[in-house]
């Protein structure tokens, strides 16, 4: 699994002019799933994200986690995170998992985030054309790939 996580002061996702997910302070997480990804990847990633110390403490140092600030989460599926761009100018998405693999794993991951964080976890709509809006606080943007755990 590969994610782009951003510390946000607010974020939302809209589908067909309807807001389907909206948060205030917390994490905006774009989630890409590959064929080889398993529940163990989602377990590791949800724990990592909830405990990632990227929120400012009283001295302005990134020393607090989502759990510490009681932040929210907006998790949006994004197969394009697995784009291959080595050849030509048109990205290949062959590495991205098909819906029969990615939908159940994405739903499992969202549930793990809810259980791990106790936070309000909002989502987009899997497979839909989504408009994502956010205010990146910092800016803080981090890439995490479960293939690079060690």
Automatic annotation (TrEMBL):
SUPFAM superfamilies: DTD-like. It comes from the Bacteria. A motif (Gly-cisPro motif, important for rejection of L-amino acids) lies at residues 138-139. It is found in: Cytoplasm. One of its GO terms (biological process) is D-amino acid catabolic process. A Gly-cisPro motif from one monomer fits into the active site of the other monomer to allow specific chiral rejection of L-amino acids. Homodimer. NCBIfam families: D-aminoacyl-tRNA deacylase (TIGR00256). Belongs to the DTD family. This is D-aminoacyl-tRNA deacylase. The gene is dtd.
């Amino acid at each position: 699994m590969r994610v782009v996580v951003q510390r946000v002061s607010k974020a939302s996702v809209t589908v067909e002019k309807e807001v389907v997910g909206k948060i205030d302070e917390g994490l905006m997480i774009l989630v890409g799933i590959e064929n080889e990804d398993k529940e163990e990847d989602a377990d590791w990633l949800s724990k990592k994200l909830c405990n990632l110390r990227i929120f400012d403490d009283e001295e302005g140092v990134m020393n607090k986690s989502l759990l510490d600030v009681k932040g929210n989460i907006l998790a949006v599926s994004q197969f394009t995170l697995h784009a291959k761009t080595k050849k030509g100018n048109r990205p290949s998405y062959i590495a991205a998992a098909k819906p029969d693999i990615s939908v159940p794993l994405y739903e499992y991951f969202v549930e793990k985030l809810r259980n791990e964080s106790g936070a309000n976890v909002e989502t987009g709509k899997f497979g839909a054309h989504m408009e994502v809006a956010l205010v990146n606080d910092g800016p803080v943007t981090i890439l995490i790939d479960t293939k690079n755990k060690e």
